[in-house]
Amino acid sequence: MNPSLRSLAKTLVGLLLLAITGLLFYTKLFIPKHSYRTIHPMRGEMNLSVFGIATVEAKTLYPVGSTYGGKLLAVLKDQGETVRQGELIARIDPVDLPDQIAQARAHLQSLRFNLQAARKDLESLKAQLKLAQIVFARYQKLSPKGYAPESEYDKAQANLRSVQAQIAAKEAEIEALKAQESEARLNIDALQKRLSRFEIHAPVNGLVVHRDAQPSQTVAPQQPILTIVRPRDVWVSATIDEALSQKLRPGEPSTIRLRSRPGAPLAGKVARIEPQSDPVTEERIVEVAFDKLPRPFYLKEQAEVTIQTGKLKNAIILPKKALQHGGVWIDRNGRAHFVKVKALAVQGNKVAVESLKGNETILLPDPHKKPLSEGTRVYR
Fold first, then answer.
1. Closest Cα to residue 299, out of 83, 55, 61, 78?
2. Which of the residue ranges 135-139, 165-169, 342-346 has the most confident prediction, judged by mean pLDDT?
3. Which residues fall within 8 angstroms of residue 191, CB to CB, at 6 or more apart?
4. What is the pLDDT of residue 147?
5. Are 307 and 254 in contact (CB under 8 A)?
6. Where is each Multidrug resistance protein MdtA-like alpha-helical hairpin domain found (predicted)?
7. Residue 284 belongs to a domain
8. Does residue 131 sit in the same domain as residue 193?
């Protein structure tokens, strides 16, 4: 073959290979790297909500103890058991208090016997008084006429005064005995009341959540023996960002998901928003009450709370992955343009935004492709 023709053939083959390589690069690498999935915004409704991590707590806990310390004779309830208001739940050794009550009762009985005897003595003295008055009246009539000696008159008068004095003394004795009897009764009542405080009763209907002491243990006054919670006081305490908590109001419907039953959401309502925030975490505590408390329940269990704060109607809704750096990329005549938008609400993997007309073509950024930039040529 002519050398010039051979050289031309080689050149043509090289150009053909170069063209094929360029075409392959363009169709297999360049175009895919500049091709992006696109979507069109949808209009619809979206619930506005606030999310927070929570723990199961109680509005009020009742640590039950005794006014007096001593040795625990019995603890009649355990953790997880229900109690009724007024039910006996523990007893403390009263030591010698029952003996003191028995002694006080014996003293009261003695006073009553003495009072009964004094009243009988008073009745006898009153009978003697009547006789003395009759005798004295007789001598009072006879003595001035000389029919009775002066000495008999004086004797009758002295006897009358003696009986009157004895009656006055006996009446005073009876009053003293009555006062002692009343004091003895009050003393017994006080001892019995004190004895009753060595028996500990449930202050409310509820559930024992903690047993703080055991039988034979010596407890101090007011030391907790059992801790009780009322089921109606159980709620979840959620930490919510300060910026989001401004939207919350008591009574707003909520969804509670307990860690022990994530697939069984529970309905609730905002019960209280604490007025003080944590200056470090910039969070606020929001308590959410159960509409129907699950049984069994566990204090300190972790939970997730979603609080419904309202509903957006006719909102522009996009996939959450379309939103980047506070905006979205749109395809305008084959070129990428970044548009700032305001996120109004997030629900799952969707976001509601404003600042879009609703007829734009939205580009979905892909980490495996060339990053989008203003004016980038895009292909579909």
1. 55
2. 165-169
3. 97, 100, 101, 104
4. 66
5. yes
6. 115-176
7. no
8. yes
Dist. CA 68–CA 146, nearest whole Å:
79
Bridge pairing between strands 226-229 and 206-211: antiparallel
| Domain that residue 362 falls in | 30-47+314-377
Q: Render pLDDT for 249-301 as a digit per residue (tens, 0 to 9).
A: 999 999 999 999 988 999 999 999 998 888 888 889 999 999 999 989 999 99
E strand or H helix that includes residue 18: helix 3-24
Nearby residues of 255 by Cβ (< 8 Å), 6 or more positions away = 265, 266, 267, 268, 305, 306, 308
- Is residue 86 located within the same domain as residue 206? yes
pTM, to two decimals: 0.64
- Joined tokens for residue 67: 């006014």
Tens-place pLDDT, residues 33-58? 445 677 777 788 887 788 899 999 99
Q: Encoding tokens for residue 264?
A: 């069984």
Contact 256, 224 (CB under 8 A): no
| Cα dihedral: 233, 238, 244, 249 (round 10) | -10
